[in-house]
Amino acid sequence: MSDATKLAAEKRTDFGKGAARKIRRAGNIPAVMYGHGTAPVHITLPGHDTFQALRHTNALLTIVVDGKEQLALAKDVQRDPIKPIIEHVDLVVVRKGEKVTVDVPVHLEGEAAAETVVTLDHATLQLEAEATHLPETVVVSVEGLEAGTQILAGAIELPKGATLVTDPEALVVNVTQAISEAALEAELAEAEAEAGIEHEAPAEAAEEAAPAEGESAEAPAETTEA
Fold first, then answer.
1. What is the pLDDT of residues 100-141, one digit of tens each?
2. Where are the residues of the annotated region Disordered (predicted)?
3. d(CA 30, CA 22)
4. What does the pLDDT look like over 182-214, one tens digit per residue?
5. Is the pTM of this model over 0.85?
6. Could you tell me the domains of the chain?
7. Are 99 and 131 spatial neighbours (Cβ–Cβ below 8 Å)?
8. Phi, psi at 53, each rounded to 5°
9. Residue 31: which of 48, 51, 11 has the closest Cα?
């Protein structure tokens, strides 16, 4: 994604939870921008435009502060766990031509062979790419793959200009044989049978320990040594 979304920001001098709540009540988002040895700059971003821009993974932003433009990437986005609200954004300064390391989501396409289960063991891959040409996804096809197929990170075709940082031996996609309905029912029956044996065992032990009808339980006689 090479086109940077332009966001007009304002510097802020008030900090703390109270100041952040006030910013959010006004429909804006508190943020901090840092990197390349520069001092952190605390800013306020427009809420709606920022929310829309950050819907894209690894979105490149042009932050305009006091008439000056600065390219940046969202390093950390803190979101409200319930409401569709961004609470705070950490931005890292980048430059054209600079290479950065980012986590890129893996997207599976196609359908594997019948009666198989496809497991995505790595939902993202860490890649190095130019800051102005960051991929949004890594596409992996599972079309027609048979049970027993495994796709490692090093075997995946990466977007142009990207370099793999994740361990090449990391398992990304695992295709296994689906459990048939008959096999599943057999496993459930076996589990129920084992559970029944476990429940019966304590009952049998209790019956053996109980005195027979007409008998009384006597305490063992004490012995003394001369």
1. 999 999 999 999 999 899 999 999 999 999 998 899 899 999
2. 189-226
3. 10
4. 776 777 888 888 887 665 555 555 555 555 555
5. no
6. 5-95 (2.40.240.10), 101-177 (2.170.120.20)
7. yes
8. -65, -40
9. 11
